[in-house]
């Protein structure tokens, strides 16, 4: 068929379709049929909401799906590339993604950057080049924003440890702070940031213009024998970090120029059981997973993924979720859970809905007050879960 | 901080290696890295072992009690006590060789695993093979004495493809370093 004949057929077809549509309305069906050709469109989003879960696709996969906790429905997706880190702007205007890409996808020139997305359109607004970052994913503490959203700290490992400071107002990398032997950041408002270290201390980096002072607490944990999970939890209102070790020792620390670490208590003892040990053949309930703890900040309740087993099983999925009242140091709720989830998160509103997921990608939304499973979501994603934090 | 700190010594060594090695110039310095790599993980491993010298069956971890020495394509092969990822032995590679087209990482994380045949502990370097898409075969995640990011030599989540021409992770090998 010649091009000319093709064009004439298309024109004729369009005219015929147009005249038929104009002649008689089509029979009414369930939805209203618009007698016009539709235009493609794009949705916009609401700003980040307290009852949204941002769920990573899992190891090696990209994208953070956003689920509404009350309906269990997906409402959008943030472009989080593989092994990137997501942070939500406290003012709700932007999503920030610290990521690493290569000029030829899997080879070529490496580029480290923070991509800035508008939270309503989810469109790329800006890119902030950075000198590097740790490519790992799965951790909440490698890319954090200050309470005012003006500064970001991005952990780097190449393989020496440092922290990149980024001015999020000017959208510019400022400088790097070397931090040997420590990893991840705990926010420390008005001071800088703090970090867990291999010598069993918390280091505090007090930023003073172009310089900094680094001080350390006394050693309070053994990084090789009973490590503290790198995914610590920070309460911005209380200026307090909550930490859990492999055996299930819970510690809190108040941040400031001098970081004060509380005496530990045992998760198992909080439930009237014997504290778990590091010895083999000592079967006990242990915390486990990649993101094994979540904090409901308004009520001061710590939620922990727990499994029965032996020591060095700290990545095993959960059989139960334990709720711990941090003020009374008591176990207040045990929720049996299916699917051996390795990640847990909780909405910071009064609904206090828990989400758990496992590496197979199925997520459950659970009412923390009743233990009832409200929604089961297939293929939600098997990775880290993020929520909006109360300021 | 002035007090004596053996971990900091290890870290200084690591920093000296890494600090003088820009990412772009790293290939030119791989000779030095290859010499340094087996050295810097010694301290934390020695420390972990110092805390666990008892190698009786009762002192063995669940992994060590069920480990075997005959099949390198199974997650319970003894050297894999702290491996995380796809076994290169299932991807066209070997226990210490990368599959064709992949590039071994010059640095690694380490494990200290007990060989059930002689009951002794050996230091194993888990070297990632890099520059190809994830192999996807025989995925294992064993965690004996595996720690967190602040002790990276003993953490198995980090992708160790530093200094290779591509940081894309393909699979992991388990090289014998020596007696622990």
From TrEMBL, chain A:
Q: In this record, what's one Pfam family?
A: Me-amine-dh_H
Respond yes or no to whether keyword Transmembrane helix is given for this record: no
Q: What is this protein called?
A: Methylamine dehydrogenase
- Say yes or no: keyword Transcription regulation present: no
Q: Which family does it belong to?
A: Belongs to the aromatic amine dehydrogenase heavy chain family.
Keywords of the record, alphabetical order, are:
Electron transport, Oxidoreductase, Periplasm, Signal, Transport
**Signal sequence: where?**
1-30
Localization annotation: Periplasm
TrEMBL record, chain B:
- Per its UniProt entry, which superkingdom is the organism in? Bacteria
- Catalytic activity field: 2 oxidized [amicyanin] + methylamine + H2O = 2 reduced [amicyanin] + formaldehyde + NH4(+) + 2 H(+)
Enzyme superclass (EC): oxidoreductase
**Where is it mainly found?**
periplasm
Q: Which UniProt keywords apply?
A: Disulfide bond, Electron transport, Oxidoreductase, Periplasm, Signal, Transport, TTQ
Q: Where in the cell is it found?
A: Periplasm
What Enzyme Commission number(s) apply to this enzyme? 1.4.9.1
Its annotated pathway?
One-carbon metabolism; methylamine degradation; formaldehyde from methylamine: step 1/1
Domain Methylamine/Aralkylamine dehydrogenase light chain C-terminal, chain residue ranges per copy: 68-178
- Function, in words: Methylamine dehydrogenase carries out the oxidation of methylamine. Electrons are passed from methylamine dehydrogenase to amicyanin.
Subunit field text: Heterotetramer of two light and two heavy chains.
So what family is this one in? Belongs to the aromatic amine dehydrogenase light chain family.
Q: What protein name does the entry list?
A: Methylamine dehydrogenase (amicyanin)
């Amino acid at each position: 068929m010649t091009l000319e004949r093709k064009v004439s057929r298309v024109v004729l077809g369009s005219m015929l379709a147009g005249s038929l549509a104009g002649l008689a309305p089509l029979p009414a069906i369930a939805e209203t049929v618009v007698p016009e050709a539709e235009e493609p469109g794009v949705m916009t989003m609401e700003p980040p909401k307290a009852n949204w879960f941002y769920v990573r696709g899992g190891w090696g996969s990209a994208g953070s799906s956003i689920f509404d906790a009350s309906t269990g429905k997906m409402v959008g997706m943030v472009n989080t590339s593989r092994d990137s880190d997501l942070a939500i702007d406290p003012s709700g205007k932007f999503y920030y993604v610290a990521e690493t890409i290569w000029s030829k996808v899997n080879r070529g020139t490496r580029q480290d950057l923070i991509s800035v997305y508008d939270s309503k359109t989810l469109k790329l607004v800006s890119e902030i080049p950075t000198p590097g970052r740790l490519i790992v994913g799965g951790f909440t503490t490698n890319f954090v924003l200050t309470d005012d959203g003006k500064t970001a700290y991005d952990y780097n490992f190449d393989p020496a440890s440092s922290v990149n400071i980024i001015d999020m107002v000017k959208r510019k990398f400022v400088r790097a702070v070397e931090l040997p032997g420590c990893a991840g950041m705990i926010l420390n408002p008005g001071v800088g940031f703090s970090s867990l270290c291999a010598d069993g201390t918390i280091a505090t980096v007090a930023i003073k213009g172009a310089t900094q002072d680094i001080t350390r607490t006394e050693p309070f944990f053994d990084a090789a024998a009973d490590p503290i999970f790198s995914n610590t939890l920070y309460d911005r209102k209380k200026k307090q970090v909550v930490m859990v070790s492999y055996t299930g020792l819970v510690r809190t620390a108040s941040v400031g120029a001098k970081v004060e670490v509380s005496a530990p208590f045992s998760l198992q003892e909080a439930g009237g059981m014997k504290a778990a040990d590091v010895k083999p053949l000592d079967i006990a309930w242990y915390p486990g997973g990649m993101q094994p703890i979540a904090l409901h900040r308004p009520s001061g309740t710590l939620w922990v993924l727990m499994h029965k087993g032996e020591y060095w099983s700290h990545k095993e999925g959960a059989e139960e979720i334990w709720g711990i009242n941090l003020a009374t140091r008591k176990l207040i709720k045990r929720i049996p859970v299916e699917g051996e989830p390795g990640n847990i998160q909780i909405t910071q509103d009064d609904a206090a809905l828990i989400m758990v997921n496992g590496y197979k990608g199925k997520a459950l939304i659970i009412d923390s007050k009743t233990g009832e499973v409200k929604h089961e979501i297939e293929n939600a994603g098997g990775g880290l879960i993020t929520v909006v934090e109360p300021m | 901080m002035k007090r004596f700190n053996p971990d900091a010594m290890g870290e200084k060594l690591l920093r000296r290696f890494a600090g003088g090695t820009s990412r772009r110039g790293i290939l030119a310095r791989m000779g030095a890295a290859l010499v340094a790599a087996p050295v810097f993980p010694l301290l934390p491993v020695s420390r972990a072992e110092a805390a666990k010298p008892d190698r009786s069956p009762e002192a063995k971890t669940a992994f060590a009690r069920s480990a075997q020495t005959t099949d390198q394509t199974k997650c319970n092969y003894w050297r894999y006590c702290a491996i995380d990822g796809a076994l290169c032995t299932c991807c066209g590679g070997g226990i210490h060789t990368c599959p064709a087209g992949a590039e071994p990482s010059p640095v690694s994380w380490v494990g200290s695993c007990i060989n059930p045949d002689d009951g002794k502990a050996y230091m194993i370097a888990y070297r990632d093979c890099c520059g190809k898409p994830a192999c996807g075969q025989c995925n294992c995640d064993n965690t004996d004495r595996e720690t967190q990011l602040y002790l990276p030599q003993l953490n198995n989540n980090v992708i160790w493809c530093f200094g290779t021409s591509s940081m894309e992770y393909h699979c992991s090998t388990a090289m014998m370093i020596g007696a622990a």
